């Protein structure tokens, strides 16, 4: 699938978001290329992010698996060459009822049927201002052990 059409790129990204919405972290990881890079842009230069399918899956599990509920609401998708840019809203719930609405702009490079780059532009304060301390500690410990 060396030459993908815009429709194929959009289809892959829609599958990607559907798998994430279902918290199928293995399926999301499998859509990353072996050298694919995933990071929240505010953390560029602070930590390395995830590289490849296994690290992407582990990073998603770290943050999203402990949530009591999670919903992804798809939004606009724009394609320009290998670049696919999306806006979406994620709702996060923790076990004691805390709730965050998190808006993302995701920039992806899609080549040969895989995601080579997934950079999320997000206001991390929209998460950390609401998140319970146990979850923040869990995230910090996970990033330190990676």
TrEMBL record:
Classification via InterPro entries: NTF2-like_dom_sf, SnoaL-like
Domain of life where this protein originates: Bacteria
A molecular function GO annotation: hydrolase activity
Record domain SnoaL-like: where: 13-117
Keywords: Hydrolase
Protein name as annotated: Putative Limonene-12-epoxide hydrolase
Organism for this UniProt entry: Candidatus Neomicrothrix parvicella RN1
């Amino acid at each position: 699938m060396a030459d993908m059409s815009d429709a194929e790129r959009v289809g892959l990204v829609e599958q990607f978001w559907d798998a994430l919405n279902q918290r199928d972290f293995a399926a999301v990881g499998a859509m990353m290329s072996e050298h694919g890079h995933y990071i929240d842009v505010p953390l560029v230069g602070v930590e390395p992010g995830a590289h490849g399918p296994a690290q992407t899956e582990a990073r998603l599990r770290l943050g999203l698996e402990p949530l009591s509920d999670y919903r992804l609401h798809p939004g606009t998708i724009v394609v320009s060459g290998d670049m696919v840019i999306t806006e979406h809203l994620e709702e996060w719930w923790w076990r004691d009822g805390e709730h965050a609405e998190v808006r993302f702009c995701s920039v992806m490079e899609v080549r040969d049927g895989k995601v080579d780059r997934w950079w999320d532009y997000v206001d991390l304060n929209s998460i950390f201002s609401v998140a319970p301390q146990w979850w923040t500690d869990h995230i910090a410990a996970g990033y330190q052990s990676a």
